[in-house]
Design a protein that fits this description.
By secondary structure, the protein is mostly beta strands. It contains two helices and twelve strands; from the N terminus they run ααββββββββββββ. The strands form two sheets. Strands 1, 4, 5, 6, 7, 8, 9, 10, 11 and 12 form a ten-stranded antiparallel β-sheet that branches. Strands 2-3 form a two-stranded antiparallel ribbon. It is elongated.
Length: 245
């Protein structure tokens, strides 16, 4: 909580991208621990059409700027390949397909004009490669199984960052499908399986730390935290409740 309270005052908004933070790592959930390959495909839709100043909702153009944000619509596919080598080591490679539309109004004070500008594209984004290492496992007297481990890897600069609209206007960097930078990924997780109750729960945090800049742009640091509870209904079906920050 102290970390979140320290970060929040420095958060700034812009037009740009959005991704869901849902954790689909089956090993972290306690649903899978065997060696082998797993494939995951997720679709997410996010509409960014509510303008805020702090906790207050504002109207388009209420705060004077060189352009007024109107709406960004994100329709993303996220494909992941996860391979578990053994109980201690595993790796996950994920690739997003970004379908994004954006609209804002360009303000020209000298000419006293307002011109709508829009972008629409479907492009591959930045590849994320994340390794995991199990530090230790614990078993209590009542057969609760706990695991603690580390996540580490890179976000690679594979997505384009020079997309333009039909008028030749280059989209702002936060709006682009790729950041153009390489980021270090570092985090940790804890999971516990309660086999007698068919329950498991987990908590995980991962930091995204850009290590370079590109064409005068460097993304901000990001931190994602997940916590979830999974109930195993049958051997083939489970229910998952999850909270993300």
């Amino acid at each position: 909580l102290s970390l979140v309270m320290g970060i929040a005052p420095h958060a700034v908004a812009s037009c740009g991208s959005a991704f869901c933070l849902v954790n689909t790592s089956w090993d972290t959930h306690g649903a899978w621990s065997q060696s082998g390959l797993r494939l995951d495909l997720r679709y997410e839709t996010i509409n960014q059409n509510r303008l805020q100043e702090g906790r207050r909702r504002i109207a388009i153009g209420e705060i004077p700027r060189d352009h007024d944000e109107v709406e960004t619509a994100n329709r993303n596919w996220l494909a992941s390949m996860d391979y578990t080598f053994n109980p201690d080591w595993g790796i996950n490679v994920s690739l997003p397909l970004v379908k994004r539309t954006h609209l804002h109004i360009e303000n020209d004070e000298a000419a006293a004009t307002q011109t709508p500008e829009s972008w629409k594209f479907s492009k591959l984004g930045d590849v994320r490669v994340l390794a995991r290492y199990r530090l230790a496992s614990f078993e209590s007297a009542d057969h609760k199984l706990g695991t603690v481990g580390l996540n580490f890897g890179l976000k690679l600069a594979t997505g384009r960052f020079d997309m333009r609209n039909a008028d030749g206007e280059r989209a702002e960097r936060p709006l682009q499908p790729g950041s153009g930078t390489t980021d270090a990924l570092l985090g940790a997780y804890y999971a516990q399986v309660l086999p007698l109750q068919d329950l498991s729960w987990f908590a995980q945090g991962v930091g995204d730390l850009p290590v370079d800049s590109r064409d005068g742009f460097k993304p901000g640091k990001r931190f994602a935290a997940d916590a979830g509870l999974r109930y195993d209904l049958t051997g083939q079906l489970g229910l998952l409740l999850q909270a993300n920050l």
